[in-house]
Known about the structure:
It contains six helices and five strands. The chain has helices at residues 12-19, 65-77, 94-107, 112-122, 130-139, 145-153, and strands spanning 3-8, 23-28, 45-49, 84-88, 165-168.
Amino acid sequence: xxxxxxxxxxxxxxxxxxxxxxxxxxxxxxxxxxxxxxxxxxxxxxxxxxxxxxxxxxxxxxxxxxxxxxxxxxxxxxxxxxxxxxxxxxxxxxxxxxxxxxxxxxxxxxxxxxxxxxxxxxxxxxxxxxxxxxxxxxxxxxxxxxxxxxxxxxxxxxxxxxxxxxxxxxxxxx
Length: 174
């Protein structure tokens, strides 16, 4: 079963060795951006330099529409034969938002609530970045459903660093 793997930065090398993902999404602040790790072809590594903020005014590099467009386009290039690894610094906010966005795009309109509930079930620590979700809701024409679904699951259990989480790309497996 193909899946999206969400991890903190600290778990990336081990996750690449263990899961052999075909694609990698890195969501880090510009000053912490990493090079493509060994085992991932550089053309299959999307590096999005953005800060983990909820408002455009809170940073010089907040999540923006062009970041979400790149993420969704990159997701379209993933054939789901092998996992896609998505990470940010802690594996809690930006990466969880990116995984949610990728799943909502792949599964289509109407899945938003089920995907959010599955995200909470598999990742009690998840606190998806609200700005990224809002931007994706606009891009994917979900009319607020993505935003409402993420708000409905709440902020999640507080932790400094998240755990590795596997998110299957089929609703029946979530």
